[in-house]
Amino acid sequence: MDQDTLFSDSMRALVRIAAAVAGAPIAFTRRVMVEAIDIAPMVAVDEVLLQSYLFAGFPRALNATRVWREVSGEHAPSDDPATTSQDPVELRHKGEEACRAVYGHKYDALRQTVSRLHPALDAWMIADGYGKVLSRPGLALAQRELCIVAACAASEQMPQLKSHLRGALNCGATLEDLAQTLSALTDIVPREALGAAREELNRIKES
Predict the structure, then answer these.
(1) Which of 66, 88, 186, 206 has its CA 20 to 30 A from that of 127?
(2) pTM attached to this predicted model
(3) What is the homologous superfamily of the domain 3-75+87-206 according to CATH?
């Protein structure tokens, strides 16, 4: 992916949707979606909404997708690979590959940490999170990571935000892409939380 063009008007619309779904009232999310209709590809918005259940929970993902169907006038696709049986071994392999791309040399430490919390969380993170969801076509992994950064900032999940700021860089985003992502969220993320996110990004720049 061309790093010079990763953060575009379309990308800005997507990260704002991701943040709104994770942290804003539904009426505000609706306004953000209306702004995105003629800017972001419909398939890309669908992918942001699908992955939002990992970072915002099913209720917010369902409600946001309902609003998107209303404001965009776009129907859901008639079929999707997720509706058919998927090979669990393949999902695990895809998940391991995507997770390793995001975490780089910290991948093994991440797996150990999550497994110590609960082995089921580790298994779900790999097969469901990274294999089933984040490896889907429709968005490049770097684009997904910018949206995850936005969602974590909006929900004020600082440990995950720190990880995914670095993860976005590992996947091909630039420091400028991350700075623009955070700048796109000034009316969504509380000032203190956004300031903390920018401080973390500055620490990465200086490291």
Answers:
(1) 66
(2) 0.95
(3) AhpD-like (1.20.1290.10)
